[in-house]
Amino acid sequence: MFLPQDDVDRVMSVMEQAFPPEFGEAWNRRQVSDSLLLSGTHLGLIAPDGNPRPKEHDETAGFFLSRSVLDEEELLLFAIAPDHRHKGLGHTLLRRFIEEARARGIRRLFLEMRRSNPAGVLYAAHGFEAVGIRPRYYRTPAGERLDAISQELIIA
Fold first, then answer.
1. How far apart are CA 150 and CA 145, in angstroms?
2. Which residues, including other chains, have CB under 8 Å from residue 4's CB and lie 6 or more apart?
3. How far apart are the C-alpha atoms of 54 and 134, rounded to whole Å?
4. How would DSSP label each residue in 94-106?
5. Residue-wise pLDDT tens digits, 34-75
6. 122-150 as b/e, with b when 16 or more CB fall inside 10 Å?
7. 144 is catalytic
8. How high is the pLDDT of residue 141?
9. Which of 123, 129, 144, 152 is catalytic?
10. Is residue 152 flagged as an active site residue?
11. Is the separation of the CB atoms in 146 and 23 below 8 Å?
12. Given 74, 112, 137, 152, which residue is catalytic?
């Protein structure tokens, strides 16, 4: 997937704001750029006004990054910048992710999140359900271990 460098900049800008550093969940620029080169990778952006394609000099409010194989797709990263949360943009972007996946013939969606991630409420509102736990998967800089929750949504 060819992606303008500007889009990588947009992703990194949101990621730097949205992912608390103590959990180590954010990706670096190279991880994002490299993942976008793989077939089956999908990126969605959202502007503060809900537009799916932020204008050239406009801020980006959020993004999703996913990867599909056959009829399954995993939501790798999903973020809304803190200044744009609680305005419905997360719902709009997640709904778009689901609709675009369905249009590509995807039948099952997956994601994994840290147990204490407040985005769990958003995912549950769209029908994602827990299907597994990776005990003590994440490690904070202080050495605390946190469970990862695997979730699934059947959209067939």
1. 16
2. none
3. 36
4. HHHHHHHHHHTT-
5. 999 999 999 999 999 999 988 888 899 999 999 999 999 999
6. bbeeeebeeeeeeeeebeeeeeeebebbb
7. no
8. 77
9. 123
10. no
11. yes
12. 112
